[in-house]
Sequence to fold (143 residues):
Amino acid sequence: MTQIDFHTHVADRIGHICRLVRKARAQAADSRIVILTQDRRQLSALDQALWTFSAQDFLPHAEVNEPVAAQSPVILTDSDQSELPHHDILINLSGAVPAHFAQFGRMIEIVSTEAGEVDAGRQRYAHYRQRGYPLSHHDMSQP
Fold:
């Protein structure tokens, strides 16, 4: 069953995801991550941030439709219907319950500080809880 982690009160979602990817890759170099964005604009911003996040870190990634996607440890997509080559970790920025999240071993929901997004995050949390998924919560406003 998919383990679901909620990271709430995230002021800088793009920066937070870059740090999550760096941490996951440092802990397990073979970790495979899919990042589902809300739209193309957000995907482009994340793509740029992963290249420029840190001068000391290389965060290899590709968009799902690129020929190298199957070999890439990090895949970016803005479509919930994309055909994905791996299902280890899903990072959800879409604002909705991903259609195929249960195929992943772990999913991380990123919820910002915006009121509308907080409400949507609470609804997703209740959705997963009602279905019996193991949940954890990390309040990122706490040091």
